[in-house]
Amino acid sequence: MGEFAASIYPINETKILQGQRASIRRVRAKTQRRSILLPGFCFLLILSIIFYVWTRVQVVQFGYEISSALEEKEAVIIAHNELKLEIATLCSAQQVERRARKKLGMDFPHRDQIIIIK
User: Fold this and answer.
1) Chain segment 36-83, per-residue pLDDT in tens
2) Domain residues for 34?
3) 45 domain residue, yes or no
4) What is the DSSP letter of 29?
5) Does residue 73 fall inside a structural domain?
6) Is residue 57 included in any domain, yes or no?
């Protein structure tokens, strides 16, 4: 009967309205915070996804650059070794003499071509 008896008395409507207004204000404040936080969170999420994809693309690009640089290095090493071999063969006396005779048409001088200077 205590509950029923309490409902007989007039309720202070201004107090209820003020309480409702305060709870509405709290709900609106929470909604406003959510409306600010949600786009901010989405922006940060999108930004971090873009950054992640960009870093992966950079890693792949640097991988290709490293691969092409290694291939170029191998080609340069092979060319260097070939040139060293050619230098070694060209420095031998027999090779120099053979090239001088064939390409330049050189030959040992005859006795009448030699002039002795005193």
Assistant:
1) 788 889 999 999 999 999 999 999 999 999 999 999 999 999 999 999
2) 10-106
3) yes
4) H
5) yes
6) yes
